């Protein structure tokens, strides 16, 4: 890394070298039985330079071809965007625990047993279900150095467990599933098995629903599949800078229901979304986004922050390219009412667990519309069965202005969202 | 640059000495460049070089897979893959017979994007971005351009040794218009295999984007409900891919008794006029290739013929287990993943109905054009249009806000009422499955008319 930095400095004013390597071992089950075991090792080196004030960028999977990497970065710098930021110098990073050596030590045999146990619990409950499952352990290493003396590195462990079950009767298909991840090993399939069995239980009967606005409870998975994508985009500093975020000019103003509190948090111990620093060596933090309905902050990387004349919030992420602002983990503060009590108070309504295709509409404007892939009808305070051929649509800005109840039941979704269920009184529902 | 040739020769020797039912190796070298704009400014420009490989082993029905960037210690990697497979293996390995091929396939690259200087690519994209911004009312724009030049070597313990090369180019441009807090966008996706030149000819289409986005702002929202819907070739192509194509991927079927019952060959899915094909052997499209990632020769596969289910897409394993012929549909997005059953170029074959005849008897209906996105759960699908117009009294009438269409695939295929004579392929798509996205595919169709289609709205 140092050699690449030294070589790059001969051609450019500033330079930064970013190295990640990972080793991942997924153990995968298909049709209820163990099918394949993989081992994936991967390494990427990325060089960002500032030459004549402009950004150049190149990546490679090899540390050997130094001259070629530097040449490529120099070639792109000629046309690159103006660098308005400075690389961070050496600094102190928060101590966030994200590595547990126990993850690497979990044996393939143990991973197999975990999957076998999970699948057999589901099949015991419902023998007609066909399951696909995967148990994965992984280790990530990340190092960053730059020409201003900045330097950071960390190691992270991640263990994941997921299952998807399908139940097919004629042309009627039911899909259930759940996923969990942690920096610790997950050694029990209990939580996931219970979730999936509850889904199957609720979907046993079919229920019909009429077309009209009605109370809808979005479960944590339901929120993830409908409301969260527009919010991610609205709080992205880049969307704000372009003037395309509907809340971009509402900093300090109350836009949402007073019950709503959301933060972006990279500091939760042993959470896969946590990191001591972001992908450009800026320390990570907890950033309040909405407090009592009022907008507090937007999320920035170095370049976007410099353009917006503010500071990076440590949200610079690389998805194979230059860093860009992106969330770590959105955390929605829970309320005090349990999910069961929320259901009890609904006379006629819908529980949305999975919405298909909700991210396709006019996302920037907050519109969403999706087909209920997994959802349940509520009649007189009770879940009576599964609802199909039904569309739910709305606008998140209108919905989040008037929240009926925020539940007390929190759940992690994909390690990126921690949320309770939320009840809205008036959501558009259309059915065949 | 690593010498793939030399490493391949080493691997051939290593594979000869192993004890497994089957072993394959893939080596890959990929050069990628990308340019993106956000708003008026160029946001990023980058070059990437990626070299890597993988080993996949089959022992008694169990698969082991190892992927890597460093091409050292190949012997250990092969051993690891075999051990993983052996840990699982309890059954009998089944792979459909294919003839091991030794061939160096030369890509016929017309205008190689690798040879076009960055300055020239950037000049073209500058022109496009200026076209978007030449209309007032535009709030922002997005342009993402990428080209990749990939060389792969496939080796198998059966003696297969295939070298292939391909160059893939994509461009996506979006114009975003705003007015009084409302936001609307219009987008264009274009792609090309082994030829940069189609990317040069988009000036007219790109300058139309801004007008469309601005017009959408003042267009009304349709009332949700059931309509007779006419889809243009692009959206109908997305429909056939999402709503039917994924169902015909036999890895969902081969070990699932209930799916097998549902997808029994001979079953009627649509009217006599309905013919659906997947063909990697149709040349020059983004889903085209000569051999798939298991070394199987590409084929043209009828999935539906005259309304009846007649075929499905296979890897060597799914074909063997279902007692059918392999179709050459095992594809991996890159060396980091094992090949899985994927579509290639999927389309509805043209029939004889002209567009005018198709809409002539529609009193009130919806004309949905262009593509924004699509998702499927096998039975249910949703897909969204990029542009939508009302059809009134047999004529295209006012623009409405882009709609999302949703339905049940089995009913919807039956409800295809008319199929046009104007097949067109859409090269701008990418397909995601099993964490492998976006895989280059193309899809297409003539105009089609669907009765009683559920449209989301107010």
Mean pLDDT of chain A: 95
Helix content of chain B: 10-25%
Helix content of chain A: 10-25%
N-C termini distance of chain A: 60 Å
Alpha-beta content class of chain A: alpha+beta
Task: Explain what you see.
The complex is a heterodimer of chains A (432) and B (458). Chain A has 432 residues and is of the alpha+beta class. Chain A has two domains: 2-200, PmbA/TldD fold; 205-432, no CATH class. Chain A has eleven helices and 21 strands. Chain A has helices at 2-11, 66-77, 102-105, 108-125, 190-202, 220-226, 228-234, 237-241, 302-307, 339-344, 396-399, and strands spanning 14-30, 33-51, 54-60, 130-146, 151-169, 172-182, 212-218, 262-265, 286-291, 294-295, 316-317, 324-325, 330-332, 348-356, 367-379, 382-386, 390-395, 405-406, 411-413, 417-419, 422-431. In chain A, the strands form four sheets. In chain A, strands 3-2-1-4-5-6 form a six-stranded antiparallel beta sheet. In chain A, strands 10-9-8-13-20-19 form a six-stranded mixed beta sheet, with helices on one face. In chain A, helix 1 packs parallel to helix 2 (66-77) and helix 4 (108-125) runs parallel beside helix 5 (190-202). In chain B, the strands form five sheets. In chain B, strands 1, 2, 3, 4, 5, 6 and 7 form a seven-stranded mixed beta sheet that branches. Chain B is α+β, with helices and mostly antiparallel strands and 458 residues long. The longest helix of chain B has 16 residues, at 118-133. In chain B, helix 3 (118-133) runs parallel beside helix 4. Chain B starts with a helix and ends with a strand. The mean pLDDT of chain B is 94. Chain B has two domains: 4-218, 2-Layer Sandwich (PmbA/TldD fold); 225-455, no CATH class. In chain B, 55% of the residues are buried. Chain B has helices at residues 4-16, 74-88, 118-133, 203-218, 233-244, 257-262, 316-322, 355-360, 409-414; strands at 22-38, 41-59, 62-68, 102-104, 138-156, 161-179, 182-193, 225-231, 276-279, 300-305, 308-309, 330-331, 340-341, 345-348, 364-376, 380-392, 395-400, 404-408, 416-419, 424-426, 430-433, 436-440, 442-445, 448-455. Classes of the chains: A alpha+beta (432), B alpha+beta (458). The interface between A and B is large, with 71 and 79 residues. Strand 3 of chain A pairs parallel with strand 2 of chain B.
